User: Fold 6-phosphogluconolactonase from Gynuella sunshinyii YC6258.
Amino acid sequence: MNLHEYPSAEALDQALASAVSEQLQQDIDNNGVASMAVSGGSTPKGLFARLSKMDLAWEKVIVTLVDERWVNPEHADSNEKLVRDCLLQNCAVAAQLIGLKNGHSSAEQGVTELHSVLQQLPEKFSVVVLGMGGDGHTASFFPQSPQLAAAVDMNTEYSCCATNPVTAPHERMTLTLPRILSTKSLFLHITGAQKKQIFEQACQAGPLTEYPVRSVIDQSIVDLDVYWTHA
Ligand SMILES: O=C1O[C@H](COP(=O)(O)O)[C@@H](O)[C@H](O)[C@H]1O
Assistant:
């Protein structure tokens, strides 16, 4: 694991946007296509604004989400709406978006259809950018969620899993842990002193159910790059 610390959110966003676009560019050059799974919530807004202005062949980039709240894409809490409003702008308007929300009335019912849609993606993402909540969740791997074990099962054949968070609103759809770890670059984006404290606690030995972010810290499949600022 590599820890990259910055004095401000702006400095972090700039550095992370450069690291992400470098990997995307490399995959465009080598394979003619790049793919990226991003998180929602409030943390990535500045990163998305910077990324959207990066000079890349965005028409060759497929963007999807790490997780989604089971609300319509017009809903203020939709992660897809955030990506459309903040990332798929400027140069990045040409990117292709694969959203996680489909027409089923519950995420649980939507899993099979979404799983087959996600099969269109390259086996390995170019980039995955994770966030972390103040309760130590990442993606939609929530503490106390009855579906946490299924979502982090490294033997699952599914790319996605429906979860019910106890500590947050809305039923969720999340990429499963093996799908998330199938990436060339894995970034964890953390802002604020309180989240840093949770992250440091999560780095100590303890159960995954306490801080599900441990699922990406305690693994040796892909190097984790943590981008952090106290601001
Ligand atoms: O609900 C979610 O929360 C986390 C963290 O969000 P933030 O608002 O604290 O940045 C996010 O990574 C995840 O994608 C989202 O669905």
About this structure: Residues 9-31 form the longest helix (23 residues). The chain has a mean pLDDT of 97.
